[in-house]
Amino acid sequence: MHNFLPVAYFQNQFVPFAEANISIATHALHYGTGAFGGLRGLLDPQNPQQVLLFRLDRHCQRLSNSAKFLHYDLPVDKTHEIIVDFVKKNQPNTPFYIRPFVYTSDLGIAPRLHKVEKNFLIYGLELGDYLPTDGVSCRISSWYRQEDRSLPLRGKISGAYITSSLAKTEAVESGFDEAILMNSQGKVSEASGMNIFLVRNGKLIAPGFDQDILEGITRDSILTIADDLGIPVQQRAVDKSELYIADEVFLSGTAARITPVKRIENYELPQSNPITEKLKEKLTAITENREPSYRDWIYSISVE
Question: What's the pLDDT tens digit per position in 20-46?
Fold first, then answer.
């Protein structure tokens, strides 16, 4: 059961969440012609009258980029302003998640992006831990990550998440917590809704953008943090067999944050995760506004 925030942004105005409804004939509902974002908010542990948003500017920019694939102009500053107003109107008092969504709002039946109305909405919900914090088990999915030549993977296009949904359900129904998807070249791509990292011989390794991954904002943050901590970083193609013999594997994302992987298929991974823990500790401190050198990643909103 989800606890949704009471106020939503819908059809250019703020309305009660319960009244923000779309028609069953909405174009995006039938064709997956939408794009979404997602960012976390939490109360400042040092000042509960302040809400902290992590990398708001980057989230707004990515949503604007995603909207371009739908032939929709969504200015970054407009999204930024509406999200700030959204938080102020909801006055959240627990950790929460914001879901902005761009979509084709017409009631037509022709699959197209030209001459079709688009719209923009935002809602939110209370959100704690998305995955078990002590670690997850993963299976290699029988479903493959799409290719950029058939779907714009640089955007968070809603229609693309049918593959994620198939992979996640396949994993859970076969006794695992999460799925790892390979790309069409047989290399490791990402999890159902998260990027993936591994550690080998003290080096942090991540599949690169050429492996059909999402341009994750948490992923980007981790790479920057690792570099600042002096941890060697490699972005390259990763073979499935490397996962089985890795020293550490973890997933990253807005919802998952940093979640260690304990087992992949029938391969148990080492219980010690020193680099994962170091990165997780640093990222947590940053999101709680306890790291002055990363203060520009945090947007603070007064909710007094």
Answer: 999 999 999 999 999 999 999 999 999
Which tokens is 148 given? 């950029």
Task: Parse the chain into domains and list their residue ranges.
Answer: 7-126, 136-287
**Mean pLDDT over the full length of the chain:** 95
- E strand or H helix at 143: strand 136-144
DSSP3 helix / strand / coil % (the chain, rounded to 5): 30, 30, 40
> In sequence order, what are the residues at sequence separation of 6 or more whose Cβ sits closer than 8 angstroms to the Cβ of residue 112?
none
Q: Could you tell me how many helices (H) and strands (E) the chain has, helices first?
A: 7, 17
Distance CA 206, CA 196 (A): 7
CA-based nearest residue to 83, from 65, 58, 106:
58
User: In the predicted model, what is the mean pLDDT of residues 108-122?
Assistant: 95
pLDDT tens digits, one per residue of 119-178: 999 999 998 777 767 899 999 999 999 999 999 999 999 999 999 999 999 999 999 999
Give the model's pLDDT for residue 170.
98
What separation in angstroms does the CA of 186 have from each of 169, 222, 287? Answer: 21, 25, 35
At 20, is the secondary structure helix, strand, or coil?
Answer: coil
Q: Collapse the DSSP code of 304 into the 3-class scheme (helix H, G, I; strand E, B; otherwise coil) and give the result.
A: coil
Class of domain 7-126: alpha beta
Instruction: Quote the pTM value.
Output: 0.95
**Torsion angle in degrees (nearest 10) through CA of 165, 171, 175, 176:** -110
Strand, helix or coil for residue 106: coil
- Per CATH, the architecture of 136-287 is what? Alpha-Beta Barrel (3.20)
Q: Which residues are bridge partners to 303 per DSSP?
A: none
